[in-house]
Design goal:
By secondary structure, the chain is mainly α. It has one domain. Helix content is 88%, strand content 0%. The chain is built from five helices and no strands. α1 runs antiparallel to α2, α1 runs parallel beside α5 and α4 runs antiparallel to α5. The longest helix has 113 residues. The protein is rod-shaped. The two termini are 58 Å apart.
Amino acid sequence: MAFVQDDKYNRFIRKHSAAGLQELVSLAEILFLPRPHSEEICNKTRDRINNASYHFSEAERQVESHLSQVDSQSEAMIAVKKQMQDDLQEKKGSLADLRAQMVAIKEVQKKSQAMLESAEVHLENAKKQYEETKKEEEEDIFYQTLLSVGVGPVIALLTLPSLEAARKSAENHIAEAQEAVVQSIAEVDGYRNEVAQLSQKEQEIQAGINTAEEKISQIQAEHDEILAFHNTVTTQQTWIRKFLSLLDLLGGRIDASAVMYSPDCTPDSLVGILEEIAGMVAGQDAKSFCAYEEIQALVLQINKTMQSLKATAGGNETIA
């Protein structure tokens, strides 16, 4: 949802602002004309004011419409950012839970590894015990074979079963120890695989968090741009409305002059309003309107004409 300023809007404002300012230049020029027929002059000045009001009213209408669009886009971005922040917090919560789970599993894995090592030691001991028992059995068989010659087969028959039982017992211990080792290995491998899976999931969640943070930062930058543009458009709206108010005041003064000062419809009181308009045109709030060369030229022309008009009015009761 990248914010893009509307070129159509900028062209529209540029067009009507330039046209309105051009009408003011024409108005100031009219006031320098000889006025053998002041009714004609009044009609011309009134036409220039009406034309300027039309152009700035069109600009104000477009500004108001564009502000509504900008507000809607701003609200949409705020909603998107809020949703992304909520998702980010959910991801961070999931990551914290996952890491806690990994800590617990690693602790169990550590204990399982210790049990495996213990089982392996037990297996080695069982094997040693078996070897010792087997060796003892073989030695006993050898001696009993020798003894059987002198003592007789009876003693051999009595001692061999006990040795065989000891050997079988040692074999059982080995089998049990081996089974314990196999189980421990399976447990350790299971925990190891589980940790590996959780580690992979951790990386995925962290990557999602990083991406979400980047997108939120981008949305914030775009929203800041919208707010800056909103402030510019709001300043334009305030400036245009004040400008229209001064044009209405100027038109009212000319209408009043036509009645009160006939046949002269441009008394010195107009100069104050025109000077205020010139000040607005050159003021800081008009900066966004003056980014184009044709408007800059009109602003300079208006200021120059208004200075000349003021000087002319200062030496006369009325502007002649």
